[in-house]
Amino acid sequence: MTVEPATLDRTDPEAAIAATVARVSNWGRWGEDDVKGTLNLITDEHRRAAAGLVRRGRSFSLAQQFSMDGPQKGWRRRTNPVHTMLDTGTDAEAGVQGFPHGLGGADDVVAMPLQCSTQWDGLGHIFDHGRTWNGRRAGEVVTSLGDSRTGIETVASDFTGRGVLLDVGRVLGDGFGELPDGFAITPEHLDATIAAQGDTSRVGTGDLLLVRTGQYGRTRREGWGEYAGGPAPGLSFTSAEWLHERDVAAVATDTWGFEVRPNEFDVAFQPLHQVVIPNMGLFVGEMWALEELADDCAADSRYDFLLVAAPLPVTGAVGAPLNPIAVK
Q1: What's the rounded Cα separation, in Å, for the pair 236 and 238?
Q2: Which fold has domain 8-74+113-327?
Q3: Which of 66, 93, 161, 183 suits a disulfide with 179, CB 3.0-4.6 Å?
């Protein structure tokens, strides 16, 4: 059963979350010890088939820059990356590096929150009433030492498969192919995008789904503005069952928070996260750069491709940066 946006009781997010969880929960589906959630849906056969989608060999980086000029404003102590040089060309010219026979070099270091730019949310990132993925107690799983059960390193090799782009911004947006902030992408919008794009955009079991709203493209013209945490187009709360019915392995968007902002309830914060991460075991990607890939997909009318999107395997991390590569 798909919930219609018009039927949502905006005053009662807790009841809506509980009712949706009852319909889409994957707890126990892959065993009580599972740590991979919906990534279990990507099989070796899925990966072999995805490799067969490569025809031209054209590759696209889907990562935003990890830059000190990024979108972060300090919310939840999230800052932009701080890049510092440890050794430079001036040090080499000054002869202070201590290397023999004229050798010189440069070295650098970066300090950053793991979710300050293009990233995956891990299964330990969001809790539902004190429970994390598969019903485990949040306090037993994620401590000051990190995520001891579902740390992002446990799925470091699993994010390879068939990627599918649903360019909702191009199909339903304005002249720039962009949706307005606050636009809630419903199952009807997703189905309409598939119908407009054709068969290569069908979405099914084990797929890595990318949803373009166009908001990131707008920041390239107008600056970051309120991109990090402000109003944004995104998936409607009602899309949870659509994602569950199609058994997607992961979903990523070009926005800061994946779901529509402001959220669709009077008082709520990221309720779709609360459903899909701890209850469905679904991996969520945010702040992906989809503009170049979207232009190429529109040009050749092919919306599926091999996607390799491995997170940096930081032990115990509840999210991680990455440089996803789509190959067509």
Answers
A1: 5
A2: Glucose Oxidase; domain 1 (3.50.30)
A3: 183
What are the boundaries of each domain within the chain? 8-74+113-327, 82-111
Give the span between the Cα atoms of 197 and 55, in whole angstroms. 19
Rounded to the nearest 10 degrees, how much is the dihedral formed by the CA atoms of 197, 202, 206, 210? 20
Over the stretch 80-132, which tens digit does the pLDDT of each residue have? Answer: 999 999 999 999 999 999 999 999 999 999 999 999 999 999 999 999 999 99
What is the C-alpha separation between 213 and 219, in angstroms, rounded?
Answer: 12
The pLDDT tens digits for 28-69 are 999 999 999 999 999 999 999 999 999 999 999 999 999 999
Q: Considering only CA atoms, which of 208, 224, 128 is closest in space to residue 164? A: 208
Distance from C-alpha of 292 to C-alpha of 266, rounded to nearest angstrom = 36
- Using alpha carbons, select from 2, 4, 5, 1 the residue that is nearest to residue 265: 5
3-class SS letters over 34-88? CCCHHHHHCCHHHHHHHHCCCCCCCEEECECCCCCCCCCCCHHHCCCCEEEEEEC
